Amino acid sequence: MSDLLERLRERGWRLTSQRRVVAEVLDGDHVHLTADEVHARAARLLPEISRATVYNALGELVSLGEVVEVSTDGRAKRYDPNAHRPHQHLVCSGCGLIRDVHPTGDPLAVLPAEGRFGFDVSGADVTYRGLCPACSGATP
Fold first, then answer.
1. Would you state the pLDDT for residue 102?
2. How confident is the model at residue 111 (pLDDT cuts 50, 70, 90)?
3. CB 76 within 8 A of CB 34
4. How distant, in Å, are the alpha carbons of 50, 55, 70, 84, 127 from that of 60?
5. Contact, 21 vs 42, CB < 8 A?
6. pTM score
7. How far is CA 100 from CA 45, 76, 133, in A?
8. Can you tell me the distance from the alpha carbon of 61 to that of 44, in angstroms, rounded to the nearest whole number?
9. Residue 83 CB-density burial (10 A; 0-12 exposed, 13-18 middle, 19+ buried)
């Protein structure tokens, strides 16, 4: 059973066949699919699943805190199932590919006290940008 499915089962989320398929599609590392991509993959597993059902399931998963919406550079929202594993994102400026990264160190440590303007800072979201090997023509 996937990590996401296991968490949902533990929370008592009613796992209909449609919800199960959406969760299965989202399972894995570096998964950052758009709602349309989730629907296309889910429809391969369960042809009768509707786009509305997928959107509703994604909304519920976000509300539960089990999936995070990721928006980058005005592109379509993507859905990240790694909501419980602290990480940042590396985004390709060319094709929009998103990878999870786990940099060392605390991003809050680089924000000096005078740069906090009196805020009680509780977190930081860092997005690294560049070109993936396919867009840059380099080998990984």
1. 87
2. confident
3. yes
4. 16, 9, 15, 16, 25
5. yes
6. 0.80
7. 26, 18, 16
8. 21
9. middle
Helix (H, G, I), strand (E, B) or coil at 3: helix
16-23's contacts with Cβ under 8 Å and 24+ in sequence apart are 17/46, 18/42, 18/46, 18/49, 18/53, 18/54, 18/57, 19/57, 19/60, 21/45, 21/46, 21/49, 22/49, 22/53, 22/54, 22/57, 22/58, 22/61, 23/57, 23/61, 23/81
Contact 54, 42 (CB under 8 A): yes
**Helix, strand, coil percentages in the chain from 3-state DSSP, rounded to 5:** 40, 15, 45
What is the pLDDT, as a whole number, of residue 113? 86
- Whether the per-residue pLDDT at 52 is higher than 90: the answer is yes
114, two tokens: 């005078």
| Residue owning tokens 């989730």 | 38
Task: Report how far residue 3's alpha carbon sits from residue 64's, in angstroms, rounded to the nearest whole number.
Answer: 15
